[in-house]
Amino acid sequence: MRTTGGATGARRGARPARVAAATATALVLGLLTGTGSQADEDSPTSADLAYACRFPDPTGAPSTTVDARVEVTTRLPRSAVPGRPVDAGTVEVTAHLPRAATSALFPDARVVTGSATLGVDVRQNKEQARADWSLRAAGTEIPAQGTELVLRYAGKVPTITVNSSGGVRLLAAEARLVLQPDAGPPVSLVCSPAPGREPRVADLAVPEDTRPASPRGEPSGPAAREKAREDDVTLSPREAAPAAPWPDECADMPTGELDTSVSAPPPPYHFNPIPLDGVPLCAYAVGISTVRKQNGSMLINDPAGKPALMRVRGVVRSDLGDWAEEPGAEGFNQIWSLAEIHLPDARASFLNFGYLPVTASVTFETGKVTILTGQPHMNDPTTAFARIVFQQSLRLHDVVVNGTPLDVGPSCRTAKSFRVLLNGDMNSKENPYVNVFSGGLLTGKVTIPAFTGCGTAGENLDGLFTAAISGPDNELRMNQAPTCVTGDFPSGCPPVVPELPRLKPATTP
User: Fold this and answer.
1) What does pTM read for this prediction?
2) CA nearest to 336, candidates 275, 427, 282
């Protein structure tokens, strides 16, 4: 038996693996008639495994063993061809840890990120090889109530090639979880499959290979198996792509004050605000803004251009409390983050007053962004909310009216800044916004103030743009991608650019 490129193998065992886990899709293993394999997207396989995790004491030494669950979701073909690699794409694993035990490890934390490595034994006939599946987790808020801390991990894993017929079984082995709280040092957990039940991840059938010899005269079928009898199972990691660096500004956290006017629930209530240093995050957010008077839209932070990155100081404050009017009643929680983004100019075209084509560039002057998520009633998940608020001003320039440039001067702008309040729906099935780490859809309506400073050489064009643009009920829809978490244990990096949100269908009054 042989392993290559960092995976190890032995006939009677293998070295311990690294961690376990993965987030939400599947191990892509599939079948190609040529040189590789393709995932069977319709055949997800999930394994619910029992584990025992050794939790450390305050000195870092393992002291307490607690029961945990690890779910491994894969997409495997039902069969493979000898000598053809089965391409392991993205593995998804969910680790369920006792909340009480994890809270004792980092009592001051509100969010945890981290990485995991799961050892997997690949067995065929009397052969065995060990693969290490390395995975990452996005940020997860530590629940204020409940019995579990649920961590979701994902990552690419090595390919598997078997050179002879016979069933292949994948068994989960030791897992190591590295938990990085937003407050305090990282914690490493060592977890082993619980005794009494086989930790089966998946099975793969490898039938007898009856294909003819290859065009180049290379042996196949029985001849190939005879040649490869000492290399029955091969684990080969996919070629590592060059590490994609993320922008330096991801680590440069913004400073400023939170806009606490969006706090919910409103007073009266007792609460204990806990200021935190925050964690460095960054993400792309793109969107569409509709000018109601013109029934037209423009792209915000156009993903087809050079979108700006939003820098985030994640979790700078945590509020926990109870309703003042009902002592001892259910509590609530709020998590605050601070962000900053310098949006690029947008180009908008519309028919002024319904018949005159006008095109203009729009410069956005955006203040600090407050991101608030919470749940006013801890016993009612439908009360969960997400609110994003900031101040913004608009400046128009490079205006063209009916094909002719119109000089509006350098100071054609809204007379004052206006408040932008966007809401995310945590309970949405289509595009939920759970927290700043996971991102999602944000929507809201803004009132654009009157314009001032428009025109040159004594010409006053303020009224023209005020009549054409200013007013209430201008819809804004933004889609925020999951954040890139920097630092010693990066996750979700480099940041990705999300898709533009779909326009909400118009409704007739």
Assistant:
1) 0.56
2) 275
